[in-house]
Amino acid sequence: MTKKALIVGASGIVGSATAQVLNDDGWQIWGLARKPQQQTNVIPVAADLLDPASLKAALSGITPSHVFISTWLRQPTEAENIRVNSAMVRNLLDALSPAGSVEHVALITGLKHYLGPFEAYGKGALPQTPFREEQGRLDIDNFYYAQEDEVFAAVARDGFTWSIHRPHTIIGKAVGNAMNMGTTLAVYAAVCKHTGRPFRFPGVEMQWNGLTDMTDANLLGRHLLWASTTSEAANQGFNVVNGDVFRWKWMWGRIAEWFDLEPAPFDGTVTPLEQQMASDAVIWREIAQKHDLAEADIDRLVSPWHTDADLGRPIEVVTDMSKSRRLGFLDYQPTDDAFYALFEKLRSDRLIP
What we know:
The protein is α/β, with parallel strands linked by helices. It is built from 14 helices and 11 strands. Helices cover 41% and strands 12% of the residues. Strands 3-2-1-4-5-6-10 form a 7-stranded parallel sheet, sandwiched between helices. It has a two-stranded parallel sheet with strand order 7-9. It has a two-stranded antiparallel sheet with strand order 8-11.
């Protein structure tokens, strides 16, 4: 029988990659968003997760066997993040409950499960790295935990299986995404090349010299498919990373080389992207006009605040995937190749010159 998926946030970095993976596997796919985008073989569903009445109406007659939740709304405080983002999950699962079609729910969160929310990011008492799933929750409020609890409450009521997926920083394509390091660095590189500014690492010495890892969106999509259809993987939380580790002092040169740039020497001085790119909107419009790019609004492409948060962490961050490996998920993706594939896609879609 054809599996039926509802992807919440289908046009985002994770959602669009997951849609492609499921489409290749022959699934029927609905994509839910407030303003759905046109996607190949994805049936658009326009709904507001914070409006239970409209959500119930929009989902009437839709009977997914699998639900993939890959969206969130950033709020000014963690208390608001908890209130808003837990309500979104609760409202969604409440609206789907009467049909009784859901067999599995996959929730995508991230390594802030171990690092803490943005208000306390990488501070206080943190578990040792590599992060392992059994390390559990920090003793601090975190909207990821609140979202998980909404899934668990719905499981107790409706009896479906679940999986929690915790990627590191995700490499993938999406326009208008709130957390998008790959496209942010591509735009930054294009601005540096256009203006002659130095291609300067914006982070701290710990990230420059320390080990880290990342998550390719396509690999994450394959992990979602695997966990949601493999009985041994049911009812568990998983870390999801590419499988390699690197130091930014190496990766920065790899990215610079792709854009035919000379990386600026790093002397330990922190120069955040929010500061470096504060006045780049006008420059980007010039670049977009010169190269006939598809998006002239730099704010639709970059999220410097998020890249600064990742590259400003005071601890080394590496992630263990032994649980998935033991259960049979063996996919591997070199991170530099993931960046290159993204840059090629951005260029072919006329999003960077």
